[in-house]
Amino acid sequence: MISDSKAFSSFSTDDIDAAEKFYAGTLGIDVQRQGDEGMGEILWATLPGGARLLIYWKADHEPASHTVLNFAVDDFESTVEELKGKGIAFERLEWTDDDGIARDPEGRMPTTAWFKDPTGNWICLLEADGLE
User: Fold this and answer.
1) φ and ψ at 126, to 5 degrees?
2) Which of 1, 46, 83, 117 counts the most CB atoms within 10 A of its CB?
3) CB under 8 Å to 36, separation ≥6 — which residues?
């Protein structure tokens, strides 16, 4: 049954080396690289909390136009500064401030920022406070 399965998420990249460097080196996620003659090389990432993510090589990769991965953190401001120090640029959108951070003055939504991986996939960083 589906309800008893081990689910995981996946998305593509056209540069497996850059993806490995970014997810393992920049973000500090445990990444295992595997080769497959049929599909090409893949990355298995173990995310905080134990969930797994498959990143696979695709020749005609097109970046997702939506968020593919979310990181809810306890200390949002420190994490933003740490990522900036590692070269991460937060996306400036119509609803973010000049630093690329969306803050809901009424407190209905967590403070949030988006950035992209090396092949353009969208990643979200958000405050964990209030998320259950």
Assistant:
1) -145, 155
2) 117
3) 42
Q: What is the pTM of this model?
A: 0.89
The predicted-structure confidence for 5-45, as pLDDT tens digits, reads as follows 888 899 999 999 999 999 999 999 999 999 877 778 899 99
Write the DSSP string, 44-102.
EEE-TTS-EEEEEE-TT----SSEEEEEEES-HHHHHHHHHHTT--PPP-TTS-TTSEE
Encoded tokens for 103:
């803050």
Q: Decide if 96 contacts 102 (C-beta within 8 A).
A: yes
**Contact indicator for 64, 114 with CB cutoff of 8 Å:** no
Please report, as a single letter, which amino acid is at residue 41: E
Task: Examine the domain organization and report whether 81 and 122 are in the same domain.
Answer: yes
